[in-house]
Design brief:
Blueprint (H helix, E strand, L loop, with lengths): L20 H9 L6 H11 L6 H13 L1 E4 L7 H12 L13 E4 L4 H8 L5 E6 L9 H13 L4 E5 L2 H5 L3 H14 L9 E5 L8 H13 L4 E3 L11 H18 L4 E3 L7 H15 L11 E3 L2 H14 L12
Parallel strand pairs: 1-2, 1-8, 2-3, 3-4, 4-5, 5-6, 6-7
Helix pairs in contact: 2-10, 3-11, 3-12, 4-5, 6-8, 9-10, 10-11
GO molecular function: deoxyribose-phosphate aldolase activity
Family: Belongs to the DeoC/FbaB aldolase family. DeoC type 2 subfamily.
Keywords: Lyase, Schiff base
């Protein structure tokens, strides 16, 4: 995974802005407002684009490589996680040309199990932490949760912000928590697990809040900004992702630092994944068309991608039970 990120973005560049609650609030509320009708209209327009043949085959493989194959249920077992990790490495056992997914995303107590299976395959282990999915816990508990996952071998940490604090305007509290969690991602070897910051956009109420949360997380050092936990509806949507892509594009223009984007929850069909890829290319730019900078958080999307891929190579659809259920 590339090391170019927001790792030093907040150092120096935003010191004055993040020095007090009032200055941070002035900055966030001074961001340009989001034109709701315009954002939804552009997202709908981009969603009508179609790609064919060779370009579609490339898009399907790219989308597979961008999947964080996810299981976040109370009934998760070591056996289920092992099976999921095996599928992440070889999504279509009958076709060795099928690429692996980007990561397997699990609860912290399942990190070791996933790591045992994945080894040095190149598929990352992501762990949700910081009192996922509510984000409602004392900071020391959130940091312990993060450190436990990193010590177990997590390559990536998906944290959730305290939406209550954010919606109450306690922006500095949210900023400081992200900074602290990022520090807790450090490993003894001097490297650091990559940090994805989840907003739970379905609870943020407005696109303006999505833009503010995006900038807040990026200034605090997030490697990725992520829409949702998948536990609250609406989860990922094209307009929300458009606003986040605009934010990472603008952040790069101001700081020279790239930050990734991860829509998660509710993306189940290959045709929808392709709509997101078109949007990435058109809004943020082709540099983001890479698993290091764009991911899908999904459990069922992979199967449809595989079905569509098989259709392109064989000329016929496989049944929905051809691939393992996740």
């Amino acid at each position: 995974m590339t090391t170019t990120s927001a790792s030093t973005a907040s150092a120096g560049v935003f010191d004055d802005i993040t020095s007090s609650e009032s200055s941070l609030r002035r900055f966030l509320h001074g961001l340009p407002g989001v034109d709701q009708v315009g954002a939804e209209g552009r997202a709908a327009s981009l969603g009508t684009r179609s790609i064919k043949t060779t370009a579609k085959a490339y898009a399907l493989d790219l989308a597979i490589r961008m999947v964080d194959l996810t299981t976040l249920e109370g009934q998760d077992t070591p056996g289920k996680v092992r099976a999921l990790a095996s599928k992440a490495m070889r999504p279509d056992p009958a076709d060795p040309t099928c690429p692996a997914t980007a990561a397997v995303c699990v609860y912290p107590d399942m990190v070791g199990t996933a790591k045992e299976v994945l080894g040095d395959s190149g598929v990352h282990v992501a762990a949700v932490a910081t009192a996922f999915p509510s984000g409602r816990a004392a900071l020391d508990i959130k940091l312990a949760d993060t450190r436990d996952a990193v010590e177990a071998g997590a390559d990536e940490i998906d944290m959730v912000i305290d939406r209550g604090a954010f919606l109450s305007g306690r922006y500095l509290q949210v900023f400081d928590e992200i900074v602290a969690v990022r520090e807790a991602c450090a490993r003894p070897d001097g490297q650091s697990a990559h940090l994805k910051v989840i907003f739970e956009t379905g609870e943020l109420q407005t696109y303006d809040n999505v833009r503010r949360a995006s900038w807040l997380a990026m200034m605090a050092g997030a490697h990725f900004i992520k829409t949702s936990t998948g536990k609250v509806q609406p989860a990922a949507t094209l307009p929300v992702t458009l606003v986040m892509l605009e934010a990472v594009r603008d952040f790069r223009e101001q700081t020279g630092q790239m930050v990734g984007v991860k829509p998660a929850g509710g993306i189940r069909a290959a045709k929808d994944a392709i709509k997101y890829l078109v949007m990435v290319n058109e809004v943020a730019g082709p540099d983001w068309l890479d698993p290091d900078w764009f991911r899908f958080g999904a459990s069922t999307l992979l199967n449809d991608l595989l079905m569509q891929r098989t259709k392109m190579t064989t000329g016929r659809y496989s049944g929905p039970d051809y691939f393992t259920l996740d």
